[in-house]
Amino acid sequence: MAEGFARAYGADVLSVQSAGLAPALAVVPLTHRVMLEKNIDLGDYYPKEMQHVDAVVDLVINMSGYDFEAHPGTEVEVWDIRDPIGESDEVFRQVRDEIEQRVLGLIERTRSRKPAALQGRPVAQAGSSKVDTRRRPTRQ
Predict the structure, then answer these.
(1) Residue 118 contacts residue 18 (beta carbons within 8 Å)
(2) Contact of 53 with 74, CB cutoff 8 Å
């Protein structure tokens, strides 16, 4: 969910990858459904293990509930988020909405630190000279 929100709302300031300490085999259908209610299609997103993150990262958002040691110099922010797996549709929506608010806060903090001259420009992927110019849906 966090990756979906970050890509939809913050592509101008964030380059995101989602991974887990012990990821599930697939994104559960209810996650897809509640995200579609926010007009965010998770499409072919899939759970990945940490070793599949393919770039140097500045920030790790840890929602696992477990301690995580990132590479030296990498900031780790802990979000205490309830795991909705096995819960009702309403719990999934509550978790989705909490994640959305936290991602929006992260985006706002990131934008406030970004020099004004660079705001609105696409962000290059780490380790690449390519710029992602795909259009993202606007927030409704």
Answers:
(1) no
(2) no
User: How many other CB atoms are there within 10 angstroms of residue 96's CB atom?
Assistant: 22
What 3-state DSSP class applies to 62? Answer: strand
Model confidence band, residue 44 (pLDDT cutoffs 50, 70, 90): confident
**How many Å apart are CA 100 and CA 29, to the nearest integer?**
18
The token pair that represents 67 in the structure block: 């301690």
pTM of the predicted protein model: 0.77
Structural domain total, the chain: 1
What CA–CA distance (Å, rounded) separates 127 from 96?
31
Q: What is the CATH number of the domain that holds 76?
A: 3.40.50.2300
